[in-house]
Design brief:
The structure is a homodimer. Chain A has six helices and three strands. In chain A, helix 1 (10-38) runs antiparallel to helix 5 and helix 2 crosses helix 5 (106-126). Chain A is mainly α. In chain A, strands 1-3-2 form a three-stranded antiparallel beta sheet. Chain A has a single domain, classed as Winged helix-like DNA-binding domain superfamily/Winged helix DNA-binding domain (Arc Repressor Mutant, subunit A, Orthogonal Bundle). The first copy, chain A, is globular and about 60 Å long. At the A-B interface, helix 1, helix 5 and helix 6 of A face helix 1, helix 5 and helix 6 of B. Chain A binds a DNA duplex through residues 32, 35, 41, 43, 60-62, 70-78, 80-81, 93, 96-100. Chains A, B: It comes from Streptomyces tricolor. Chains A, B: Residues 12-148 form the HTH marR-type domain.
Chain lengths: 155, 155
DNA sequence: TCTAAGCAGTTGATACATCATCTACAGGAG
DNA sequence: CTCCTGTAGATGATGTATCAACTGCTTAGA
């Protein structure tokens, strides 16, 4: 651990700190809006959005976890909480007795239908509307490149 | 709530999802590396970095909270945990009996000095090295513009 | 000087994420 | 059929974030 560390240059540091802070502040703000206006957490929102995109609003824990890139344990705990609030129900799986399905309820559909428009408006008002199309393309390009690298570079 | 919602275009959606996923994946990975290689959480890291940047490694809860943009409650809980592990100590304040200082310990300095180089290398390897200087400038520009707007647009 | 406003930090409750461990079942090799 | 390995998901412990009170101290203002 000699002095061979390539510390960040001032520009790199500024970019990195700005990016980190953006995540924290924007994510925090959007999350709080979601929670206070629609009474769902960002995690609830992700689950509900995904379930409305899937036949019969019904999917195996496993597949849901893969789609959201969550750990199975997180999924299990989170679905238990959401089921407690009536947004989804757990359903046994006939074909594989180990497995189970998560199914969105009417209350879950109502919640997501109420939350989504507000959330999208917030994403626009707080983010998209302040970024030009060209900048947005750069951002997409960066995100996808870095994500691709993360995928390769070990799980 | 009529059908006047301006949903995201496919490009916008791709950009937004990529950005959100980048946060989650990159943040998660860097956090886990920090934790497993250096035994400090990202939050610990932020506190320690800030304290090494300040005279005598010593600052009021309040000022620390402002600098990191944390709530005072979070600060209080977190410092209590860090103090439990010997990374910082709490110190009463003579001038204002309500207040208190957070002071970094030798163990805290040792921890951050061990963690920082690895963390910087990880930030480079997983992010900076995959982004061109021009892209980095765009990212900085976007971040700062959006953050500025968040500041104005209410607390 | 007394009081009311409000600031600094704490505390307890609740929700969330991760980890290690555990149970039950599935599917293949012998 | 009987193991044996692996998979699906559950569970409990720990650490973390947020919210809503709450305590004790300060300070401005009547």
């Amino acid at each position: 651990m000699a002095d061979t560390v390539r510390w960040l240059t001032p520009e790199e540091q500024r970019a990195w700190r700005g990016f980190v802070r953006l995540q924290e502040r924007l994510g925090g703000r959007l999350g709080r809006l979601l929670q206070s206006e629609s009474n769902v957490s960002p995690a609830d929102f992700a689950v509900l959005v995904h379930l409305t995109d899937v036949p019969e609003g019904r999917q195996r824990y496993q597949d849901l976890a893969r789609a959201l890139e969550w750990e199975k344990s997180r999924m299990s705990h989170h679905i238990a909480r959401m089921a407690g609030r009536g947004l989804v129900v757990r359903e046994e799986c006939a074909e594989d007795a180990r497995g189970a399905f998560v199914v969105i309820t009417d209350a879950g559909r109502a919640a997501i239908e109420a939350a989504a428009p507000r959330h999208v408006e917030a994403v626009r008002a707080l983010f998209i509307d302040h970024v030009t199309p060209a900048e947005l393309r750069v951002l997409t390009e960066i995100s996808e490149r870095v994500l691709r690298n993360l995928d390769e570079e070990a799980g």
